[in-house]
Specification:
alpha/beta; two-stranded parallel ribbon; 33% helix; globular; Glyco_trans_9; Glycosyltransferase family 9 protein
Length: 94
């Protein structure tokens, strides 16, 4: 639980409003119906980025942000490799 952490944490979420609402996170700041431009500005000001989205990975990399990229282990049909091998960010801060 975030309430138990000994330091201040602010969670900012960007994306489609209906998807974000389904998560039910009462402590998060929602950027409703965000655009790629608003996502860029949020990422620019973050200390850490957590994302399953490759576009956000590229933006976070451009700003040299520490990042946790979330990918599944499902194998891709044409390669046989797990998704995280193909889509992993591939830089030291990820």
């Amino acid at each position: 639980r975030l309430h138990a952490l000994p330091y201040r944490v602010c969670i900012v979420m960007v994306g489609r409003s209906e998807k974000i609402r389904q998560l039910g996170l009462d402590m998060a700041l929602y950027i409703a119906d965000s655009t790629i431009n608003s996502a860029v500005e949020v990422i620019r000001s973050c200390d850490l980025v957590i994302t399953p989205d490759t576009s956000i990975v590229h933006i976070a990399r451009a700003f040299d942000k520490p990042m946790v990229a979330v990918y599944n282990k499902r194998k891709l049909k044409n390669t046989g490799l797990p998704g995280y091998h193909i889509w992993a960010p591939g830089y030291d801060k990820a």
